[in-house]
UniProtKB/TrEMBL annotation:
GO biological processes: cysteine biosynthetic process from serine
Highest taxon in the source lineage: Archaea
Any Pfam family matching the protein: Hexapep
UniProt keyword list: Acyltransferase, Amino-acid biosynthesis, Cysteine biosynthesis, Cytoplasm, Repeat, Transferase
Catalytic activity, EC: 2.3.1.30
CDD domains: LbH_SAT (cd03354)
Keyword Cytoplasm: yes
MF (Gene Ontology): serine O-acetyltransferase activity
Compositional bias (Acidic residues): 173-186
UniProt KW Transferase keyword: yes
The protein, known as: Serine acetyltransferase
Length: 195
């Protein structure tokens, strides 16, 4: 089993590899809230697995306050996971995240049931979850998928797929006062995952 310290070092290297703005290991160590959230999660998860549920929840609560990232300590997260920017991320209790997953700010892995059963998404290896994407329910997002910024996903996604969110709607103005003509509507495709 890989020690927590080894995981922390691996997480620093992962941040450097996945973020072109990372200038060096010291900068990453000190200034990356997504990384800090992952580390605090890793410690909280060990506590949770050891039956220390309240201390685990308190640590995850502290992590949320410090980083703006909420990861339930019972969630399962693989190696080389990286949260870029961090703020607003929510990972629910029964969520499972594979290895080498990249997640941007505002992502939610949320549940759609109040039952005490699997109710959060499973994200397989090498997936990229774009900013503010929302994955709901006990769905599976396949290996090497790309979920676009702002996408709402409530069904399984096959391996290798790219999923983009709702289209933006443009309302044109065609009078001098700048009033919107309700009939002048066109759509603009949403961009792919934030990279």
């Amino acid at each position: 089993m890989v020690s927590l310290v080894s995981r922390f070092v691996e997480d620093i290297r992962t941040a450097q590899a996945k973020d072109p703005a990372a200038r060096g290991p010291l900068e990453v160590l000190l200034t990356y809230p997504g990384l800090h959230a992952i580390w605090l999660y890793r410690v909280a998860h060990v506590l949770w697995e050891g039956g220390l549920r309240l201390p685990a929840r308190l640590l995850s609560h502290l992590a949320r306050g410090l980083t703006g990232v909420e990861i339930h300590p019972a969630a399962t997260i693989g190696r080389r996971f990286f949260i870029d920017h961090g703020m607003g991320v929510v990972v629910g209790e029964t969520a499972e995240i594979g290895d080498d997953v990249l997640m941007y700010h505002g992502v939610t892995l949320g549940g759609n049931s109040m039952r005490r059963e699997k109710r959060h998404p499973t994200v397989e290896d090498d997936a990229v979850l774009g900013a503010n994407s929302t994955l709901i329910g006990a769905i599976t997002v396949g290996e090497d998928t790309r979920i676009g910024a702002g996408a709402v996903v409530s069904d399984d996604v096959p391996a290798g797929a790219t999923i983009v969110g709702p289209k933006a709607t443009r309302l044109d103005s065609d009078d001098e006062d700048g009033r919107v003509d309700d009939d002048a509507e066109s759509t603009v495709e949403s961009p792919g995952p934030a990279e």
